[in-house]
Design brief:
The chain is of the alpha/beta class. The chain has 2 domains: about 10-20 and about 90-220, Rossmann fold (3-Layer(aba) Sandwich), CATH 3.40.50; about 25-85, DNA polymerase, domain 1, CATH 1.10.150.240. About 40% of the residues lie in helices and about 10% in strands. The strands form 3 sheets. A 5-stranded parallel beta sheet has the order 4-1-7-8-9, with helices on both faces. The chain has a two-stranded antiparallel ribbon with strand order 2-3. The chain has a two-stranded parallel ribbon with strand order 5-6. Strand 5 (about 115), helix 6 and strand 6 (about 140) form a beta-alpha-beta unit. The mean pLDDT is about 85.
């Protein structure tokens, strides 16, 4: 499948947390519960907010300084609580459904590229009714072996390529620094571009464009719209 020559991008990868959905309330509540359960001091609200988006293992190992044993135990507690309580404590950003549907109707291949494991990612997207406009759901592996953003991006591109889509000029739509770095550090960086979603100003460096709202993405991704 090919795209019209005037289109700047041939495939679009979307982050999930902070880009398709505002998932912060459910993640923060689950993290707070988890830290209390494992006996770790709960960080302040700003620090907790900074944990929304990056791979959860990085949060436990790097940001919280946990050893492997505590990380494994904390991950198990977090998963149980998040899957049963926090996953749907979120909302879809207004207009993102229009963006996904418009791209899909225009024949632009779409995959997610989220650090969230694929099982909860699929559950959330199904809940929002968005799976019909997304060709491939790609995220971290459920065992967290694939969780680095660059690896998730590469897997999304591999799956789109396997289905015959043109991935010569893909773009990653994300909101956080790790999305920008994950895009730029993928093993095929010459074939990846980045569009900033709702990134804080300090995290937008390196993006090819920025969009204040989901609907502002359409003139960037489909200039004729």
């Amino acid at each position: 499948m090919t795209s019209s020559p005037e289109r700047p991008f041939t495939a679009v990868l979307f982050d999930l947390d902070g880009t398709i959905s505002d998932s912060a309330p459910g993640i923060i509540e689950s993290l707070t519960h988890t830290f209390r359960q494992v006996g770790v001091p709960v960080p302040d609200q700003d620090t907790l907010m900074s944990f929304v988006g990056p791979p959860i293992l990085d949060t436990f190992r790097i940001a919280m300084g946990m050893d492997d044993e505590l990380t494994e135990r904390t991950l198990a507690v977090y998963r149980e609580h998040y899957f049963s309580h926090g996953a749907l404590d979120s909302r879809m950003y207004p207009g993102i459904d229009v963006v996904l549907h418009t791209l899909h109707e225009a024949g632009v291949p779409i995959s997610t590229a989220t650090s969230k494991p694929e099982t909860p990612a699929t559950y959330i997207l199904e809940h929002y009714g968005l799976t019909g406009d997304i060709d491939v759901i790609t995220g971290a592996s459920d065992d967290e072996v694939r969780s680095a953003k660059a690896d998730v991006v590469e897997e999304a591109l591999r799956r789109l390529d396997a289905r015959g889509f043109d991935i010569s000029r893909p773009v990653l739509v994300g909101d956080r620094l790790h999305d920008v770095e994950g895009g730029g550090c993928a093993r095929r960086p010459d074939r990846l571009r980045r569009v900033g979603g709702t990134a804080p100003p300090a995290e937008a460096a390196g993006t090819v464009a920025q969009a204040a709202t989901p609907l502002d993405l359409l003139p960037i991704l489909l200039p004729s719209t």
